[in-house]
Amino acid sequence: MKLHMRNPRIPLHVLHPDAINRVVAPGYHGKSHVIISLVQDYRHGAKTANSLLMPIGFSVYKTKNPVRDEKRSLSKLSLLGEVTSYNDNREISTRFDLSPGSYFIVPYCLSDNHSGQFLVRVLAEKDPVAGKTGCVVS
Predict the structure, then answer these.
(1) Which DSSP letter does residue 41 get?
(2) Residue 115 maps to which CATH number?
(3) Where is the Peptidase C2 calpain domain (predicted)?
(4) 99-113 per-position pLDDT tens digit
(5) Which of 3, 26, 83, 122 is spaced 20 to 30 A from 61 at the CA atom?
């Protein structure tokens, strides 16, 4: 956790759950099915691209007050899940079933003292409305 405490926190706000679907188990009713993907950016051309990839990961934290918790230690927030690739994959993704509320997505590199550019994609059944401060899933 100390490795990525200073990494950016990307806010994600889930406003409404998905519509009730008879196929979905009742335990998932009232939640929004969200796919979060982290993609490494490389701009040095296709020949050297694979050698520039680093092991990456991201964590998802639940927050009650995103403005106040922006500077708060990650150990004080509720960790919902963590996705890590120990290989040099360009993209990692997973699905979360999130209740309405506010969350932080925290991307990180597993290598010490390495910074890089990345793209975070959030896919949901509802249309997400992107803002300057993050993602809103309505």
Answers:
(1) -
(2) 2.60.120.380
(3) 2-131
(4) 888 999 999 888 777
(5) 26
